[in-house]
């Protein structure tokens, strides 16, 4: 009986110490590898940031094609180019906004879109293409200028990448 208790107590102690180590790693202690997911979510929801790259200007996002007819808006390719010295990482989510007389307004269909929880990384000096759908559900794009916003991280910095596209009649 005494041996059986040891077999129960020792694994419980080991598992308990593993759980406390994992929780300790989740505290934001300023470690450059820690990303605060609340800040990333807030960053992705902003509609006023008009920068087209990271603060240092070494990471850029482009869209192909860059012009659509209102009846052909749909599949597109985002390209993330990393000319920095660190990996850049980002998830699948993106938002689309419409330029209404100088004020960026969100395209509401993207509030309903569910993205996979996939994290991507682009190494320094590399580019990578990602297919996207600008019309995941039917939507009547008005002619004008639109932009895509995507949250990204590099090192201990979070920022928002943007790129624009045009819809013609």
From TrEMBL:
Q: Does the keyword Signal apply?
A: yes
List, alphabetically, the Pfam families matched: Big_14 (PF20251)
Residue limits of the Bacterial Ig-like domain? Answer: 58-163
Record keywords, A-Z = Signal
Q: Does the keyword Transmembrane apply?
A: no
Sequence intervals crossing the membrane? none
Which segment of the chain is annotated as a signal peptide? 1-24
* Protein name, per record: Bacterial Ig-like domain-containing protein
Annotated organism of origin: Chitinophaga rhizophila
Taxonomy-wise, where does this protein's organism fall, top ranks first? Bacteria, Pseudomonadati, Bacteroidota, Chitinophagia, Chitinophagales
């Amino acid at each position: 009986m005494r041996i059986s208790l040891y077999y129960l107590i020792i694994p419980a102690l080991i598992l308990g110490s593993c759980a406390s180590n994992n929780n300790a790693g989740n505290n934001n202690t300023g470690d450059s590898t820690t990303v605060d997911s609340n800040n990333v979510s807030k960053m992705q929801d902003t509609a006023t940031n008009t920068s087209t790259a990271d603060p240092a200007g070494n990471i850029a996002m482009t869209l192909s094609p860059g012009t659509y007819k209102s009846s052909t808006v749909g599949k597109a390719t985002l390209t993330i180019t990393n000319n920095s010295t660190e990996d850049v990482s980002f998830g699948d989510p993106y938002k689309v906004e419409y330029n209404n007389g100088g004020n960026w307004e969100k395209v509401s269909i993207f509030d309903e879109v569910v993205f996979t929880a996939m994290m991507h990384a682009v190494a320094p000096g590399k580019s990578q293409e990602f297919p996207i759908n600008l019309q995941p559900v039917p939507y009547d794009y008005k002619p004008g200028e639109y932009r895509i916003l995507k949250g990204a991280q590099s090192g201990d910095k979070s920022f928002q990448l943007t790129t624009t596209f045009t819809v013609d009649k």
